């Protein structure tokens, strides 16, 4: 029994030493009350700052979201305006192309008419040359006829004179 008691005592002493050592380790790991309170105060301050930062971030996120929505709406309006402007320009372009096609057709018609007019002018010039030659020939003929007429008038005058001379002589 004594041996058992000694063994129990030894075991209890060993356990006590271990517990004492664990208690010392816990005490060494423990922070003094004042330092603990300071750490708690610092923790609360940091938690407040964190809360404020979270609230600030939340506000900034909401503001950024609203701004993003406004920007998106503005971009949609600008895009719509650009689409409408592009449609207007496309319509104007189609109108201008139609006018241009019409003018091109008019120019082709005018060019064809001009070509026909040039041919007519060439024909008229040819006719004019022929008329000029015919007129020149007629003038030459007329001059020749006038000369013949002059000659005949001179011959008639000479005959009249001769008859005038012969008639009194034959009457007598």
From TrEMBL:
- Tell me the protein's name: NINL protein
Primary localization: cytoplasm
Using the record for this protein, list the coiled-coil segments as residue ranges, or answer none: 36-165
Q: Which gene encodes it?
A: Ninl
Name any Gene Ontology BP term. microtubule anchoring at centrosome
Query: In which compartments does the protein localize?
Result: Cytoplasm, Cytoskeleton, Microtubule organizing center, Centrosome
Q: From which organism does this entry originate?
A: Eulacestoma nigropectus (wattled ploughbill)
Keyword line: Coiled coil, Cytoplasm, Cytoskeleton, Phosphoprotein
Q: Name one GO cellular component term.
A: centrosome
PANTHER family on file: NINEIN, NINEIN-LIKE PROTEIN
């Amino acid at each position: 029994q004594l041996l058992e008691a000694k063994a129990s005592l030894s075991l209890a002493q060993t356990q006590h030493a271990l517990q004492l050592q664990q208690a010392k380790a816990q005490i060494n790991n423990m922070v003094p009350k004042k330092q603990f309170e300071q750490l708690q105060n610092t923790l609360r301050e940091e938690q407040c700052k964190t809360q404020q930062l979270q609230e600030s971030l939340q506000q900034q996120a909401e503001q950024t979201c609203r701004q993003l929505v406004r920007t998106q709406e503005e971009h949609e309006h600008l895009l719509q305006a650009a689409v409408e402007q592009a449609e207007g320009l496309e319509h104007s372009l189609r109108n201008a192309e139609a006018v241009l096609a019409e003018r091109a057709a008019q120019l082709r018609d005018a060019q064809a008419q001009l070509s026909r007019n040039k041919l007519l002018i060439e024909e008229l010039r040819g006719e004019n040359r022929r008329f000029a030659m015919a007129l020149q020939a007629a003038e030459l003929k007329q001059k020749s006829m006038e000369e013949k007429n002059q000659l005949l008038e001179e011959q008639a005058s000479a005959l009249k004179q001769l008859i005038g001379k012969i008639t009194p002589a034959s009457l007598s």
